[in-house]
Write a structure and sequence with these properties.
CATH class of the largest domain: Mainly Beta
Largest sheet: 10 strands, antiparallel
Structural class: mainly beta
Number of strands: 21
Helix content: under 10%
Strand content: 35-45%
CATH topology of the largest domain: Glucose Permease (Domain IIA)
CATH architecture of the largest domain: Distorted Sandwich
CATH superfamily of the largest domain: Glucose Permease (Domain IIA)
Shape: globular
Radius of gyration: 24 Å
């Protein structure tokens, strides 16, 4: 074979092995929402099937959107007792296509509770405490660390449900609702990570956490966070990766607590949602 044929052969081989980008299978652009009949406090999962990376917004506010599989994406919509029930506009875009949907969030009645704090237990915190907790709640990291449904963080009974409004020492707490579940486990009983994640917050009463008390916050990824308040002992460090069910501390009564209990909260995109739906499913 003459050497003058080699460049032609090399060019032919390269051409034969190139797969055009346009050969990717195009799937229909669809959007689904669950649960079917959400109420205030629920987390809504928006699942998007599309060949192109989508964007999503509710009531004009952009939502974080993450890939959960080949040509499949998901965004979460968090609702709270401070929001107004009724319609919300959902707009999802992918390439030059747009889907417009109307979401309906039903109303929900929340009880009122009166709390009397003993001397030395104040319902006002420090800027240091609130700044650190606010920075934690704002976390949206791209990797999903959780796997499956979340689990109870303590074996004690639930004594205060999500969403309760409160009077502290006779004064109504404006714009307040109980951001989580209270578990009445005995002092010193184990508190476990509700799901796999990375410890992103450790706060101590001795360092100014006067409301939250000894606190652990876990980042589960993609805007999903859990927080554990009023602990006695803390057994983890910031940056530590913990597995579901791993002991992270013990029940205590540090901070603005009238007795030993665990306060457990779950946040989605910075908003505190009812954790109970996450105990039933994990939105894989």
């Amino acid at each position: 074979m003459g050497n003058h044929l080699l460049p032609w052969l090399v060019s032919a081989l390269i051409t034969a092995t190139v797969v055009p980008a346009s050969s990717q299978v195009t799937i229909p652009f669809t959007v689904s929402v669950s649960p079917d009949r959400p109420v205030l406090g629920d987390t809504l999962a928006i699942v998007i099937n599309t060949s192109e990376e989508p964007t999503a917004e509710v009531a004009g506010k952009a939502l974080p959107v993450f890939s959960i599989g080949p040509q499949q994406w998901r965004a979460f919509v968090a609702t709270t007792p401070l929001q107004t029930p009724g319609r919300r506009s959902l707009v999802v875009r992918a390439g030059n296509q747009t889907r417009n949907l109307l979401l309906w969030v039903g109303d929900r009645a929340f009880p009122v509770q009166r709390i009397w704090l003993p001397p030395g237990k104040d319902a006002s915190g420090t800027d240091f405490e609130f700044d650190r907790v606010d920075a934690f709640k704002a976390l949206v990291t791209p990797q999903r660390l959780w796997q499956g449904a979340f689990r109870r963080p303590n074996s004690g009974p639930v004594t205060t449900p999500y969403g309760v409004q409160r009077y502290y020492n006779g004064v109504f707490a404006k714009d307040y609702f109980h951001r989580g579940l209270d578990y009445a486990g005995p002092k010193g009983s184990p508190v476990v990570a509700a799901q796999r994640g990375r410890v992103a917050l450790v706060g101590r009463e001795s360092q100014g956490f006067l409301i939250h008390g000894n606190t652990v916050g876990i980042d589960h990824g993609q805007g999903v966070l859990t927080i554990y308040l009023h602990l006695d002992q803390i057994r983890v460090q910031e940056g530590q990766l913990v597995e579901a069910g791993e002991v992270i501390g013990t029940v205590g009564n540090t901070g603005a607590a009238t007795g030993p209990h665990l306060h457990w909260g779950l946040y989605v995109n910075g908003e505190c949602v009812d954790p109970r739906s996450w105990l039933a499913q994990g939105w894989q």
